[in-house]
Inverse folding.
């Protein structure tokens, strides 16, 4: 009887320790996800500002190619404004990449907590969060790579316009390249839509996880 009691008590202690361990991991995961979310909010703000400057630059480009090329003063002002918009976009894009990288790193760090969990259902839900975050990171990387390439082509275009020795043929060739990049705007928009859809799904899984551990 005593031996049975000791064994039962031992099992109870193991079970209690297991529950306490899972609770500890859940609390740490919650803190890490909150940290990740704060960086994502900054990333979202970067995206709003990027869109604003991209629209200004695009509008200016459309107006610029319709200008009388002999109107040097107006042309120069337009070039200066466009280059400023490009610089602003570059700075915001770099900041956006950095913010999402930090968000990703904070979220990815929950792996060490997942590995310490005992509840398989919670573990599976947390793993799903991790996988979805990785997918969102891939989409952000694709978007940023496309955006970086677009800015380089635009910078080259405006640099050529600043060159007094440019030719009409060279300008038209550069405009063709710009048009090709602008046509990729739709591709970039598609990536954004995929990212936003995946984000909604991520938030749903996150909410379900925190409901399961009674955190939120």
């Amino acid at each position: 009887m005593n031996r049975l009691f000791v064994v039962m008590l031992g099992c109870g202690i193991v079970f209690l320790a297991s529950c306490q361990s899972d609770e500890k991991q859940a609390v740490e995961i919650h803190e890490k996800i909150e940290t990740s979310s704060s960086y994502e909010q900054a990333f979202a703000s970067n995206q709003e500002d990027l869109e604003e400057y991209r629209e200004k630059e695009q509008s200016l480009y459309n107006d610029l190619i319709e200008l009388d090329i002999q109107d040097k003063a107006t042309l120069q002002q337009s070039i200066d404004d466009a280059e400023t918009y490009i610089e602003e976009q570059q700075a915001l894009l770099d900041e956006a990449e950095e913010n999402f990288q930090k968000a990703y790193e904070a979220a990815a760090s929950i792996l060490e907590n997942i590995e310490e969990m005992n509840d398989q259902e919670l573990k599976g839900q947390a793993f799903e969060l991790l996988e979805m975050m990785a997918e969102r990171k891939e989409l952000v990387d694709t978007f940023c790579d496309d955006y970086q390439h677009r800015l380089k082509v635009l910078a080259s275009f405006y640099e050529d316009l600043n060159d007094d020795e440019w030719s009409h043929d060279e300008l038209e060739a550069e405009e063709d390249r710009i048009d090709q990049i602008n046509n990729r705007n739709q591709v970039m928009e598609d990536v954004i839509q995929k990212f936003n859809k995946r984000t909604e799904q991520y938030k749903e899984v996150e909410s379900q996880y925190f409901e399961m551990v009674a955190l939120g």
Observations:
- Residues 2-212 form a domain with the Four Helix Bundle (Hemerythrin (Met), subunit A) fold (CATH 1.20.120.570).
